[in-house]
Amino acid sequence: MISILYLVRHGETEWNHIGKIQGHMNIPLNEIGRHQAKQLANALVNSGISKIYSSDLQRAYETASIIAKELNIQEVIKCPLLRERSFGSFEGMELKQLITEIPDYETNWDIVDNPVIESLEALRKRSVSRIMDIVTETEGEKILIVSHGAFINAFLYDITNGQQGPGITEIPNTSYSILLYDNKSGWKIQFLNNNAHLSQR
Q1: Cα 103–chain centre separation
Q2: Predicted confidence (pLDDT) per residue in 11-36, tens digit
Q3: What are the residues facing 177 on neighbouring strands?
Q4: C-alpha closest to that of 67 among 89, 98, 38, 91
Q5: 11 near 32, Cβ under 8 Å?
Q6: Is the pTM of this model over 0.90?
Q7: Which of 98, 120, 164, 192 is 20 to 30 A from residue 109's alpha carbon, by CA?
Q8: Cα–Cα dist 21/58, whole Å
Q9: Which residues are annotated as catalytic?
Q10: DSSP state of 36
């Protein structure tokens, strides 16, 4: 039985706009982000999505809640394991500070887990484990997950054997990918990073 997963990055926050590192910090959407979420919700009205899961961080949960309202889905299921990559002591700093100290932070799979930054390998394992649990729980359904850029990229890296992912795939705010999962043949990408809804007025 084939499951269909819509994998969505949250809408824009003010920290996205000014280039500050968010990680696990709980930053809300800005007005642009809320508008992006409404545009995406309108694009998904006839999608047949039956369940919505979200990172428990405010920017993701707010995005998911806006979508759920338009799709008449009563509950958004919060999950801390869908959170963004942890950037430890760099959270709240400007991105350029991280780039200065760890220039290859986005692509270096040899960085070990430490209090400063979550390793890409740990993030990959977390993303695969939680998403596979969700797909198993909802076999045959159309579901939507709202998460974060680094989290989504780590998952894409795994299911494409490194053809997509960190340093390769750009994931704009509220873009979505449609992924098909069959427990015999595995994952197939039907559509990657659709953000056509953002051109709508």
Answers
A1: 23
A2: 999 999 999 999 999 999 999 999 99
A3: 7
A4: 38
A5: yes
A6: yes
A7: 192
A8: 15
A9: 10, 84
A10: H
